[in-house]
Structure formats: structure tokens, C-alpha cells
Amino acid sequence: MNPTKADFPNEYWKAIIDCDTAYDDHFLYGVITTGIFCRPSCKSRVPNKENVRIFKNAMMALEEDFRPCKRCKPEGLNLPTEEWVEQIAEWIDTHYSEPLTLNKLADISHGSPYHLQRSFKRVKGISPTEYIQRLRLEKATRLLENSEQPITEIGLAVGFSSTPYFMTLFKSKMGNSPSGYRKAYLKTQALEREEFEE
């Protein structure tokens, strides 16, 4: 039997769905997709049953590299804020092209949007939204430099849902439109090649 499959009593699953505090002393559950473990009474969004692992105690969950939930603090454990923010930033680094909102980030990281916004800004010096924008612009810049993709495709590829918004934000942050940036970059590259060849 594959241990990652949901092979646990139905009453446990019902306890998770119902956020039943009566089961808090019986088991903890981890969610494979987020790597976080919770008490059955946790108010976070109900995960898909096939992504749930059951643990008798926090030590078992920690041994399998699951992290304690910020919201329900299983077994009184709490992840240091800096570590929590770094994990959120790492998650953003891999999912930046998806539609991301503060609420979605809070949901995934099992914290409140307000606490996430405040903690993230304190640790990183910028808000989660600014972090996402900066990352998307960096990725867009690389695509402008190294590909012939049209501007509209680049904006969508890095996670901007609207091309005009992408172009406006790019110009305000980079001092040039995406097409202007690409032209200037290619011109600089050509000049450097000429100098090198002389």
C-alpha cells in the first residue's frame, strides 16, 4: 500500500472537514502539496483527500520534513517568522507565473492575509505583491533579451494577466517600454560584438 495515498479512517477525514477539535489529541495531518501539517481543527481550506498524510504526533511529521502550520500551531510548534516568509518567497519563486493574490498566498501558507503582508514586508523590505511584480519583471527582462517572443506572450508567460498593465508597469519600473528595452538591449549587444570583432 502506498503511504502517500489517503489510507486512513473515514472518521479522521470527517474530523478534518468538520474542523473537529475533539480529534486534536488523536492525530495531526500533513498536506503533501504544501508540506504543512495541522491539527484536525485547523480552519485552513480543506485539502484534497489524496494529498493528506496522517501523523500520530508532531515529531513524525517533522521527521518527514513537514512544517507546522502558522494558523493552528500543532503541538504548540511555531515556525520562526523569517523561515515562514522565506518559504513563502521560495513558493512564489516557483509559481510566479500563476495568478497570485495575497489571499491565495495566505491560504497556501496557513496564515492570515494581514499577518502575511506585515511579516513579509518586515523580513523582505517589500510587500508580497511588490516581490511578485519584481520577480515577474526580472523574468520578462530575460525573455526580452534572450527570445523573440512577442511582448504580449512574454507578459502572459511571466504571470501578467493583462498586456497593457504589463507594459505600463514595465515602463514605470524600468524607464522604458518592453519593446524599447529590447531594441536598446539588441543595439548594445550588436555594438559590443562589433567592438569585439575589430
Question: Which features would summarize this protein structure in a list?
Answer:
198 residues; alpha+beta; 4-stranded mixed beta sheet; 4 strands; 55% helix; 7% strand; disordered N terminus
Structure report:
This protein has 198 residues and is α+β, with helices and mostly antiparallel strands. It is built from 9 helices and 4 strands, in the order H-E-E-E-H-E-H-H-H-H-H-H-H. The chain has helices at residues 10-18, 58-63, 81-95, 102-109, 113-124, 128-146, 151-157, 163-174, 178-197; strands at residues 28-31, 36-38, 52-55, 67-68. A 4-stranded mixed sheet has the order 3-1-2-4. It starts with 9 loop residues before the first helix and ends with a helix. The model is unreliable at 1-5 (pLDDT under 50).
Largest sheet report: 4 strands, mixed
Number of strands: 4
Tally of individual helices: 9
Oligomer: single chain
Strand order of the largest sheet: 3-1-2-4
Radius of gyration over all CA atoms, rounded: 22 Å
Order of helices and strands: HEEEHEHHHHHHH
What characteristic shape results from the CA principal axes?
elongated
Residue share in β-strands:
5-15%
**Low-confidence region ranges:** 1-5
* Span of the ends, CA to CA: 68 Å
Arithmetic mean pLDDT: 88
Task: Report the structural category.
Answer: alpha+beta
